[in-house]
Amino acid sequence: TGMFTYDPGFLSTAACQSSITYIDGDKGELLYRGYPIEQVATQCDFLETCYLILNGELPNEQQKEDFVSLVTNHTMVNEQMQFFLRGFRRDAHPMAVMTGLVGALSAFYHDSIDINNARHREISAIRLIAKMPTLVAMAYKYSIGQLYMYPKNSLSYTGNFMHMMFATPCEEYVPNDVLVRAMDRIFILHADHEQNASTSTVRLCGSSGTNPFAAIAAGVACLWGPAHGGANEACLNMLEEIQAMGGVAKIGEFVTKVKDKNSGVKLMGFGHRVYKNYDPRATLMQETCREVLGYLGVKNDPLLELAMALEKVALEDEYFVSRKLYPNVDFYSGIVQRAIGIPVSLFTAIFALARTVGWIAQLNEMIADPEYKIGRPRQLFTGAIRREVKPMAMR
Ligand code: CMC
């Protein structure tokens, strides 16, 4: 058994080579294909970011136009998906629904499910990016008992998502620039993040040669957990809980509970496996948060004030300082989404929508790598080596 490196949680194992996303955790730096996240988030829209992540280069005008039109052509889902959706309870968690819906796509696209075929990978990438907003909005509409809205291809990718979320057959949604831009930025900031748990899940799942839709469904399932994508939902619930306890005045009490290892309580939206400095996405998210609240005329959002006070206390506390725990992207994203009108239970599904492009790019990169093999970790066996089965009467 001495042949293997024992590395639970993969703290020091590089499982692949990748040229997509670079993180310098000590500096708090994030680059998509070499471009700093601060520049991508302020100078590109989400579909340009998708093009960059998938193809390695930013599109020129013509390439962008072609890409947008390609994605736009695939926004609808098969009508049968509605019937599948209707099998769920109305109060099903959207991530439970998404795991099912994304996996179900495999059953509709028999012409593009061979993961070893580059053309199939290309078309399923477009289908997934195009259909995720439709599926998330369908899951939402279903949960509130409304008819689901068909995609409107005259709108932008993100404008269309907001339309499918907030329009009804009796009332049109007029896309609002500030809110659409905020949502678009949320998408950009979540688009890829190298070998996190869900991305590694997608790679491992895809390494068996399963189809792209199945591999992405595995990523959705992994993302659901509160230590990963579920942190945005958990963070907002945490803020609301502190607010209910008495708000800012109760921060000290809450932080004391977090520091007590036996409490099992963590400061959600804080800490990261790779960032040992401020998560650059959190800075950009906080900026968007201010912009959205300013636009909506929310002078003092009690949750934002609470979050900022909590952040300040944590950043000055020896427990967090010594462990290099800083706010991550999820610390402020929930406040922005809530202000836009997104229900808390949908936050992680929106993260999944945005991360889909990263998952696909990483999956395609793996398949195209001549060194790729089925992922098959080894173990250090700690059980009984060999023993004999006794007859029932003697056990
Ligand atoms: N609150 C309190 N203590 C923490 C926290 C936290 N949020 N995060 C880490 N610690 C402590 C941890 O208990 C450990 O203490 P000690 O050394 O005394 O045992 C130390 O800090 C190191 O943490 P770790 O658990 O060994 O670090 P990890 O790399 O295994 O975990 C993490 C990273 C993100 C899972 C963890 O920080 C966490 O659970 N954070 C809260 C959930 C969260 O916000 N997740 C979103 C991550 S960013 C978005 C995404 O990519 O999904």
From TrEMBL:
Keywords annotated in UniProt: Acyltransferase, Transferase, Tricarboxylic acid cycle
Active site: H272, D330
Pathway in which the depicted protein is active: Carbohydrate metabolism; tricarboxylic acid cycle; isocitrate from oxaloacetate: step 1/2
Keyword hit for Transferase: yes
Annotated signal sequence range: none
Keyword Signal: no
Reactions accelerated catalytically: oxaloacetate + acetyl-CoA + H2O = citrate + CoA + H(+)
BP terms from Gene Ontology: tricarboxylic acid cycle
InterPro entries per the UniProt record, alphabetical: Citrate_synth-like_lrg_a-sub (IPR016142), Citrate_synth-like_sm_a-sub (IPR016143), Citrate_synthase (IPR002020), Citrate_synthase_AS (IPR019810), Citrate_synthase_bac-typ (IPR024176), Citrate_synthase_sf (IPR036969), Citrate_synthase_typ-I (IPR010953)
A cellular component annotation (GO) from this entry: cytoplasm
GO-annotated molecular function: citrate synthase activity
SUPFAM superfamilies: Citrate synthase (SSF48256)
Coiled-coil region: none
Recorded family membership: Belongs to the citrate synthase family.
Name this protein carries in UniProt: Citrate synthase
UniProt organism field: Rhodoferax sediminis
